[in-house]
Amino acid sequence: MKNSYTQKEQYYGDYLGLDKVLDAQFPESEARGVDAHDEMLFIIIHQAYELWFKQIMHELDSIINIFQSETINDNSASLQIAVHRTNRIVEIWKLLVAQIDVLETMTPMDFLDFRDLLAPASGFQSVQFRKLETKLGLKMQNRHEKRYYEHQLRPEHVSGIQELEGERSLIQLLEQWLERIPIWGAEYWTDFETPKDADPEVHPFWASYRHTFESGLLSAELAAISMADFDNLLLGKGEKTTRLSPASLQAALFITLYRDYPLMQMPYQLLSKWLEIDELMANWRYRHMSMVRRMIGMRVGTGGSSGANYLKGAMEKHHIFGDVTRITTYLIPRAKLPKLPSILEEKLRFTI
């Protein structure tokens, strides 16, 4: 059957909806007859943020969809796509951080020209950003000053965020993916040497690795680094103090240590990019906090939050991938890495 679809002739402005986009700025100062030139900059900067948040959500949803699969081939096109789109999110976050430079061309006096006209609106009320945090894995119970959410957001927006919490977040899916990485089977470790005093209840690799790590600590580090924390984080001994499981953190550390093997390179890129995003988001919050302090000092935010103090608390508490960052404490030099069994080495190489 012949395709009857006729392609519509496109016109630049129509295709991009520029009539709507460019007519979506309504400075309150103009409506009230107040001279506040920089309000237009303030509006456009924040509208641009929302557009980029929408693009990040578009990329994130596709990545989440990939990791919802029950089986993921770490050498497959789908994982390569996930890495590619994660890298795009990295570049967008770099742009979002840099965009603050433009906003900072506005002086505190420029901001005061229209600040009082904004209340009680606040960047805190960015529903897209709150949903983005939720999709990444930030739960309402772990948010800084969570009482603000009930007072500052509309009920339907709070409900939408809570509904998203019922879905599997990216951090949960990455945990599931890491736990499934098949490298710990007994068939791979039959000829692996372990220290004589190794704990028989601990996997041979981790018994050996623990010994190598501890013996390589400097005297000053011995006082600062508790091996009980190593046991808790990676071996699951003691009360759980992490969001991610010991099995997933073992896989994350193994990937980081042996990333030079071909089949570890793509998983390593994925993990390192999400750590970079976590860092960029913290940097964005820090830049925002510093700018707020410069603009309004210690005054409260237009939405009623504690202003810069709220932003400081969120920056410190809202890390999504903090558990993965913690494992860098337990890295050792390449020269000291335990030699992997030959059968596992072959598995981690590309086959021809």
Automatic annotation (TrEMBL):
Question: Which Gene3D superfamilies is this protein grouped with?
Answer: 1.10.287.3810, 1.20.58.480
Pfam families on file:
Trp_dioxygenase (PF03301)
Q: Does the keyword GTP-binding apply?
A: no
How does the cofactor attach, per the note?
A: Binds 1 heme group per subunit.
Q: Where is the signal peptide?
A: none
Query: Recorded E.C. number(s)?
Result: 1.13.11.11
What keywords tag this UniProt record? Dioxygenase, Heme, Iron, Metal-binding, Oxidoreductase, Plasmid, Tryptophan catabolism
- The keyword Metal-binding is annotated on this UniProt entry: yes
Q: Which cofactor does it need?
A: heme
Give, as in the UniProt entry, the pathway in which the protein acts: Amino-acid degradation; L-tryptophan degradation via kynurenine pathway; L-kynurenine from L-tryptophan: step 1/2
Q: Which GO terms fall under biological process for this protein?
A: L-tryptophan catabolic process to acetyl-CoA; L-tryptophan catabolic process to kynurenine
Named from the GO MF annotations, one term is: metal ion binding
Main function: Heme-dependent dioxygenase that catalyzes the oxidative cleavage of the L-tryptophan (L-Trp) pyrrole ring and converts L-tryptophan to N-formyl-L-kynurenine. Catalyzes the oxidative cleavage of the indole moiety.
What family does this belong to? Belongs to the tryptophan 2,3-dioxygenase family.
Query: What name does this protein carry?
Result: Tryptophan 2,3-dioxygenase
Tell me what organism the protein belongs to. Aureispira anguillae
